[in-house]
Amino acid sequence: MARILKIKLTIGIISILVITLLQYVNSAGFVDVVRKRWGPLTWEDFDGYAPPFTSYGAGVASYVSFEYDSLRGRFNAYSFQLNVNSWVRRDSTGQQEMLRHEQYHFNISELFARRLNAYIEETPNCTAKMLEWQLKTLDVERQEMQSAYDGDTNHNLLADKQRRWEFKIDSLLLLEEGWVEDPYSGVRAYFASSADSSGGVSGTATYRKYSASRYGVYLSMLAIRNEALTPEYVDLMARDAAARFGATFTTDESGDVYAEAIYDSVICRTRMKFIGDIPYMYLIHARYPLYPDDTTGYAEIARSFVNSVRLPGDN
Amino acid sequence: MPRPPSPASASFDPKDYFRTFSYREVVTALCLTLMLCALASATFYCSQYAWHAEYKNVLLVVSIFTAVVLNHVFYKIEHGRPNNYMGRTFADYLLFFLFWIAAEVSTIIVSGSFATSKLDVEIVPITIMFTVLLTMVLELTLSGVKRLIAMFGWHVF
């Protein structure tokens, strides 16, 4: 056989071997492919082989796709996780924090599936081709967001940034459902999760408290109805807080008292408002851990929560 | 007695290429198609590494250039003469056509369904035109490279 033909055949045979080997690895040894729809992940969903020379403990492969729903007569976008391309190292399977990080990668994909569904809602006559184009555009954004998530959290090594991203992704997924509202006084705050509620009577005051411990931050909102409350009393409290904690306080033109104290790892905001003739006082409180490392991620969650509070009449 | 230099128009005459066209060109194109498929699979596999996004375009260009140049190198060795401009361009068309077929077939095999084929009838003419023009530009570039390395007495294709 001519030498050149041998070279060509060698290239062909090596190429076939490489293709087969990579196909074997990509399909995790030809195991059954499972496209898991969005939901909680477990390590059992990770069947893929870890890529060689990687310094990471796990990787999740999540995507967005769409299908035609013949019952509803329209397209439906969904996110899914692929078992054969999701992998975990054996020594990492006990680490729930790592699984949580991968879960939020999946949640980001779900976020973009919902955006594609929003596009389908807005465009009732959209075709599969239009959706493919839209999906391509969204996929670029999705990849950017996945990279930003990994970059900011340094692949889950920065706990405070990880929590900040969890808060952000949950907020984007929950949207309006993340609000907790006190039905009596009308005050609402964005917890990005459900909140425990309690209430009672103390002297002349009735109070209701909503609180949640999530993302490493304690968040609470207290609404106090007290006929004996006067702006002067709240002003006095605010001044006291200012003296003790270096708080800032203002009294706006409408007479509503607004005070805010920031000390160590606590943001505490006090507001008083007359709803009708009834004086209400609101204490909004966010406490986050003070570690020697960076805590800016926690502080941002706390600030975001405190700023989210809306009293009746607020814009 | 040295051969008189061929006129410039000879570079645009694909007659020599088609006159000597045989199974050897098809085998070369097939083997290089397989090589391109293997490189594409490797590039896809590497997409899980952080460096991939930065270098994927470089990998793509290097892969295509390697396949195209090898195509011409094999031609020169087998025929004992270099292919001319139009001949090289037609050899590239054969290579790209086979690669496109392989990509379509592998998509169908991997997904197990004809529905996943990315063949879009509406953009086929544009794609063909774009490929034809891009190949001609690529071969013009290679002609420049060929002349450049010939100055050092290196006649590889």
Number of helices of chain A: 6
The N- and C-terminal alpha carbons of chain A lie at a distance of 84 Å
| Sheet/helix structural class of chain B | mainly alpha
What is the fold named in CATH at topology level of the largest domain in chain A?
Answer: Jelly Rolls
* Overall form of chain A: elongated
Counted beta strands of chain B: 0
Largest sheet of chain B: none
| Proportion of beta-strand residues of chain B | under 5%
- Averaging pLDDT over every residue of chain A, what do you get? 87
The poorly predicted ranges of chain A are none
Helix content of chain B: over 70%
Count of beta strands of chain A: 14
List keywords for this structure.
heterodimer, A: 315 residues, Jelly Rolls, 3 domains, 14 strands, B: 157 residues, mainly alpha, 5 helices, 70% helix, globular
Please explain how this structure is put together:
- The complex is a heterodimer of chains A (about 325) and B (about 160).
- With about 325 residues, chain A is of the alpha+beta class.
- Chain A folds into three domains: about 1-30; about 30-155, no CATH class; about 175-310, Jelly Rolls.
- Helix content of chain A is about 40%, strand content about 30%.
- In chain A, a hairpin with a 4-residue loop joins strand 3 (about 60-70) and strand 4.
- The longest helix of chain A is centred in the middle third of the chain and has 27 residues, at about 95-120.
- Chain A is elongated and about 105 Å long.
- Chain A starts with a helix and ends in a 7-residue tail after the last helix.
- The mean pLDDT of chain A is about 85.
- Chain B is an all-alpha fold.
- Chain B has five helices and no strands.
